[in-house]
Amino acid sequence: MSFGGFRGLPTGASDDITPWKVDVPQETLDNLSTLLKATPLAPKTYENSLPDQKRTLGVRHDWISSTKSYWETVFDWRKQEVYINSFPHFKAHVEDGGLGKFDIHFVGLFSKRSDAIPVMLLHGWPGCFVEFLGILDRLRARYTPETLPYHLIVPSLPGYTFSSPPPIDKNINSDSAARIFHQLMTELGFKSYLIQGGDLGGRIGRVVAANYAACKAIHLNTGPMPPPNPAELKSEINKSEQEGLDRHMLFKEMGSAYAYAHATRPATMGFVLSSNPVALLAWVGEKYIDWTDEDPPMDTLLTCITLYWVTNCAATSLWSYRQFYGPGAESHGTKRWHINKPLGFSWFPKEITPVPKAWVETTGQLVFYRQHSHGGHFVALEQPDVLWKDVEDFIDIVKSEFR
């Protein structure tokens, strides 16, 4: 497959990085089909059948019923697999001093330009590499390997989809993942790079930026943190930002129980989410429709959930939550997260943790901040053109860091 001319690794890449292809065994897909058909739904209740299509008490019965039916009878994984495989995939063998060996899966578009800037794009939970394919699709249509101004690397986080799960005898956290991803960029032969991230990807990205000189700048679309000391604030919070903070308080009250369940009972949640695809659909699908500005296309949503099921990563992807939620969780205070490097931030109104510019300014050398009128938590999926325009504008500001 030619991948539109994109297929090779950059000069200087390690021999431990090899081309790879997504090929889910038919037996796995047949098993999924059997389980979907055999799984009964919970009965209709007041909570799952609220008037006016409200879903303030959880996922709706009518949504689960229609989505399960579509998954069984219409959704075509092989069609989605062909699209996924139209991008170059690779696996890198990464040795982490604390946790051992990992096979890290990633999608990559590599330029032949000597001045191309490496950009690593990091997803979170319950996301996956598919979130960024829309951006890659647009860039491969716009450029050739000879003209692309960037190297684009979209990894699967440890424990997610096609990357190795964490070891069963050692704990993994964001610091561990940061080491792994810095090592990945080193094995690709890059001496400097930029990170874009949201959700857990943004948290990992901040650790990378704080700990590794090779990471020259970072762009975020989420930035959870407690309110800074008012004396630290340099600018006012505008009306839209205050409305975002108010929505976040409602989310903390009504929508954050999942995070505490992941943090305090990840073993139990892993068994529940791995037991049946409809359970996974309810738990993960709810986030895709509640945390977005508009519901994502059904095929896109089911591609992401199918990936979680066929790779059996529902249990192995929960590791980050106990670091940030529950007893003994780390604070996201500004001292820990202050980064003396160029920082860009894109604000979207339906983000579950929409941080005002005045707060972001206390966490780093903010050189780019843009507020948008549409978009939510999965913004790379929802608004690929808008997000990438922000990243490109940010790169224009910081490109001197790469000379």
Automatic annotation (TrEMBL):
Q: Where does the Epoxide hydrolase N-terminal domain start and stop, copy by copy?
A: 17-132
Positions the record marks as coiled coil are none
InterPro entries membership: AB_hydrolase_fold (IPR029058), Epox_hydrolase-like (IPR000639), Epoxide_hydro_N (IPR010497), Epoxide_hydrolase (IPR016292)
Query: What keywords appear on the UniProt entry?
Result: Hydrolase
Q: Which Pfam families match?
A: EHN (PF06441)
Family that this chain belongs to? Belongs to the peptidase S33 family.
Protein name in UniProt: Epoxide hydrolase N-terminal domain-containing protein
Q: Which organism is it from?
A: Sporothrix stenoceras
